[in-house]
Design a protein that fits this description.
Aspartate Aminotransferase, domain 1; seven-stranded mixed sheet; four-stranded mixed sheet; 13 helices; 16% strand; globular
């Protein structure tokens, strides 16, 4: 029962937020959510918002999908949480089997479930260290892996994620990652690939010796870093390098997974089979759940009791995830992802012809982004303009997020169940923002 049953206004709830919630928690939109359905969210005043944020990529199957709601309700009626370490339950085992079959590769695989994306990354590191008996961890420039001490150490962006929170975990190194929009002027993509690949190899001479590295952790498409898409050549080179040197190759699919890029996992676009895959976000449609899936030999390196957690792999999360996997297949969301992405890309490319501040449009499936710059010639990042566009959108009924090391990326993470009508309506709001903020 609520401590306060009185009906409060939005302003009164906002005052409570300011009084009782830590300042370090950010709020891109200060409305008070009341309910959600598909690609729509309604606040307590009845105001409607089209969702292009998806709880930062968590809601590929949308808000409160009926199949997810029903699965969670049924599970809550039967059993909420015995603790898998205390007594097993069917949903955990069934989900482990399904994900072992869905993740890339036909080798023998196993899975472990946890709570958050950062926990998944932490456990992938633990597994790799246990398996290889090595300590060093390599991530990439502009990468984001979480807010725990280890995952902050693996993350590039200093503010707001790392500033003032050190000291960080030792033996963590960040390798170069391609960014084609930022390559030297006049250089071909092929030549740039050669340059970055050489820099990657040189990194293991100048920064850390490969025989000391337990794992290389890569987002197949960088999320918080700005939706940066590497080439197939680069990803395949990294995977081959890892295999040559006995390094565990981890694909961080926390934001890219479950149909966001038009495939179940983004790494599939690169024809690479990772040793381990970390999953979370859209795995369970908003119910906290994450996991590590991959080589059975690697996951079995840890002894009983060395992995796990009190709430890890809760029954509610597991049944929600099983429903999500059914929805992706039944509703054809991999195909729908590509359709959504194409609509966004076409509209954004048209905007680029009109607005000098739109520097690049990029996407893989529906994981799409617009890079906002001061002008197309200098390509200087324009964080203020990106923030103004997002602010306008949020004030006019569209949940929209920025990203990127410089905060100058507008990113699209709309639920994949969005209708064409709502998709175009949301894009129209962005166009209004461009006209208002960039003219």
């Amino acid at each position: 029962m609520s401590l306060n049953t009185a009906v409060l206004t939005t302003g009164e709830w906002q005052a409570k937020r300011d009084r009782y919630v830590a300042r370090g928690v950010s709020n891109g939109n200060r409305s008070i959510a009341a309910r959600g359905e598909g690609a729509l969210v309604y606040d307590i005043d009845g105001r409607r918002f089209i969702d292009f944020a998806g709880a930062i990529g968590t809601l590929n199957v949308g808000h409160s999908h009926p199949k997810v709601v029903e699965a969670v309700k049924q599970q809550a009626d039967q059993l909420i949480h015995p603790g898998f370490n205390v007594m097993m339950y069917q949903a955990y085992l069934e989900l482990a089997e399904k994900l072992c079959r869905l993740t890339p590769g036909d080798h023998e695989k196993k899975a472990i479930f946890l709570n958050s994306g950062a926990e998944a990354v932490e456990n992938a590191v633990k597994i790799a260290r246990k398996y290889t008996k090595r300590q060093a961890v390599v991530s990439f420039t502009r990468g984001f892996h979480g807010r725990t001490n280890m995952t902050m150490s693996m993350t590039s962006k200093v503010k707001p994620y790392k500033f003032g929170f050190g000291p960080f975990a030792p033996e963590v190194y960040q390798a170069p990652f391609p960014y084609y929009y930022r390559k030297p002027l006049g250089m071909s993509d092929e030549r740039y690939d050669e340059m970055v690949i050489q820099a990657f190899d040189d990194f293991f001479v100048s920064a850390v010796a490969p025989e000391t590295v337990a794992c290389v952790v890569m987002e197949p498409v960088q999320g918080e870093g700005g939706f940066i898409i590497p080439s197939k050549r680069f990803v395949q080179h990294v995977a081959a390098f890892c295999k040559k040197h006995g390094i565990v190759f981890v694909a961080d699919e926390i934001q890219t997974g479950f149909a966001r890029t038009g495939k179940y996992f983004a790494v599939e676009h690169f024809d690479v089979v990772p040793d381990l895959v970390t999953v979370s976000k859209s795995l369970a449609a908003g119910v906290p759940l994450s996991g590590v899936v991959g080589s059975a030999e690697m996951l079995d390196a840890a002894a009983p009791g060395e992995l796990g957690g009190t709430y890890a792999g809760s029954p509610l999360g597991c049944v929600a995830a099983l429903a999500v996997l059914d929805i992706i297949e039944e509703e054809g969301l991999n195909k729908r992802s590509e359709e959504i992405g194409k609509v966004i890309e076409d509209k954004a490319l048209a905007w680029k012809e009109t607005y000098q501040k739109i520097g690049e449009v990029r996407r893989l499936g529906a994981m799409a982004a617009i890079e906002i710059v001061k002008d197309q010639d200098t390509r200087e990042p324009d964080k203020a303009a990106a923030a103004a566009i997002a602010k306008y959108a949020n004030e006019h009924g569209l949940l929209l997020l920025t990203a990127g090391i410089n905060g100058n990326i507008i990113r699209f993470l709309t639920p994949l169940v969005i209708t064409d009508e709502l998709l175009h309506e949301g894009l129209d709001i962005i166009e209004e923002a461009l006209q208002t903020e960039l003219d």
